Each structure stands twice: as C-alpha cells, then as structure tokens.
C-alpha cells in the first residue's frame, strides 16, 4: 500500500512545527491544572481557616471565663488581706473581754 502524499505532508508539517505548538499546548494544559488545584487549595484554605477560627473563638471564650474567675479570686484574696487585721483585732478584743469578765480568785 502506497502512502498518501497528503498524510505524509501532514506528518512532516506536524514534526517540523512540533516545537512551535507543544509549548503553548503544554502551557494551556498546565494552566488548567493549576487553576483547578488553585481553586481546590483556596477552598481547603477557607475550610481550614473557618475551623481554626472556631477553635480560636472557643479558646478566647474559655480564656475570658477563666480570666474572670481568676480576677474574682484575686478580689477575694485582696479583701481577705485587707480584712484579716480587722478580724484579728476583733478576735483579740473578744478574748480580752472574756478574760476581763472572769472574776479573779484574788478579788472579793
């Protein structure tokens, strides 16, 4: 079977022009793959960002709650520190008044 001149000419044309069109074709193919992976990456980034934001919000809320509780404990400790001398003074006065109410064995 004899090769057709048109198909032989087409093969030669493709072979000669291969360096001219293989670059743009590969560039377009890689651009399409890059666009697909870029969209998937941005979707994945948004999901990860949302999850991280939720964890951050929960951590912030817990931090605020524990910070408030620590502040209340600090206020109680401060008040106890301020009132402790008064409580000791009141206890001393109470003990002295009880001691003074007792009758001395040496008195009439």
Question: For the report, how would you describe the main beta sheet?
Answer: none
Shape: rod-shaped
Question: Which regions are unreliable across 5 or more consecutive residues at pLDDT < 50?
Answer: none
Q: Tell me roughly what share of residues is in helical segments.
A: over 70%
Task: For the record, give the distance between the C-alpha atoms at the N and C termini, rounded to a whole number.
Answer: 153 Å
- Please compute the radius of gyration using only Cα atoms: 45 Å
Concise summary:
The protein is an all-alpha fold and 108 residues long. It has one helix at residues 5-101.
Can you walk through the features of this model?
The protein starts with a helix and ends in a 7-residue tail after the last helix. The chain contains one helix and no strands. The chain has one helix at 5-101. The chain is mainly α and 108 residues long.
Task: Please supply descriptive tags for the structure shown above.
single chain; 108 residues; mainly alpha; 0% strand; rod-shaped
Give the helix/strand layout.
Blueprint: H1 5-101
